[in-house]
């Protein structure tokens, strides 16, 4: 069997707000083992942001204030090879070096995936998926701009705070958007070139048929009208 890695990225601020609303309703990541290099992180390496069963009802400020919140830069962390930085052990290397290694790893892994899409470009994502895997969906993707995250009104200061908490995801998303649009444009150009090639081939075949018919018409008897019609 052939296995292909694919993923869908989302605008980091919208994704962060969506996760906050999800956690606020009682969702947890307790089922996630966070295994890296064959072991789970210790409580010292990965402290919890809450002491109870879940973090339901937490405010956005509380969500942002937790320094151990795995919602921060989640997309980079999930796409990168954590073993390169000692998994969840933050003492392995300086923070600046760790961030660079994680971001570079996430970019490389994203680029090497068979396919990735962006939630803000649903139709383009569908188009690229269909062209990449030579398949067609039954119905077109629908662009939903009204989400739980979009219903959250935040001021500019909060927006900037969320962007700062997710600065690696912000950079990854800019990279992903640029690469995604490049691939889309390339695939569209390739499609147009193929369509143009087919039209040229069809015109060539048509001209050859017309020339052949003219030649047969000139060589045949002018009185044999019915026979010529049948051949044409």
TrEMBL record:
What compartments host this protein? Membrane
- Region annotation (Disordered) maps to 212-232
Q: What general EC class does the enzyme of this chain belong to?
A: transferase
Task: Tell me yes or no: is Oxidoreductase among this UniProt entry's keywords.
Answer: no
Q: Name one Pfam family in it.
A: Sulfotransfer_2
Sorted alphabetically, the Gene Ontology cellular component annotations on this record are: membrane
Q: What is its main location?
A: membrane
What is catalysed by this protein? alpha-D-glucosaminyl-[heparan sulfate](n) + 3'-phosphoadenylyl sulfate = 6-sulfo-alpha-D-glucosaminyl-[heparan sulfate](n) + adenosine 3',5'-bisphosphate + H(+)
Q: How does it sit in the membrane?
A: Single-pass type II membrane protein
Q: Which InterPro entries match?
A: Heparan_SO4-6-sulfoTrfase, P-loop_NTPase, Sulfotransferase
> Keywords on this record?
Glycoprotein, Membrane, Signal-anchor, Transferase, Transmembrane, Transmembrane helix
UniProt-listed Enzyme Commission number(s): 2.8.2.-
Q: In the record, what terms sit under GO molecular function? A: heparan sulfate 6-sulfotransferase activity
Give the matching Gene3D superfamilies. Answer: P-loop containing nucleotide triphosphate hydrolases
Taxonomy, superkingdom: Eukaryota
Summarize the protein's role.
Answer: 6-O-sulfation enzyme which catalyzes the transfer of sulfate from 3'-phosphoadenosine 5'-phosphosulfate (PAPS) to position 6 of the N-sulfoglucosamine residue (GlcNS) of heparan sulfate.
Identify its protein family. Belongs to the sulfotransferase 6 family.
* Name of the protein in question: Heparan-sulfate 6-O-sulfotransferase
Source organism per entry reads Phaethon lepturus (White-tailed tropicbird)
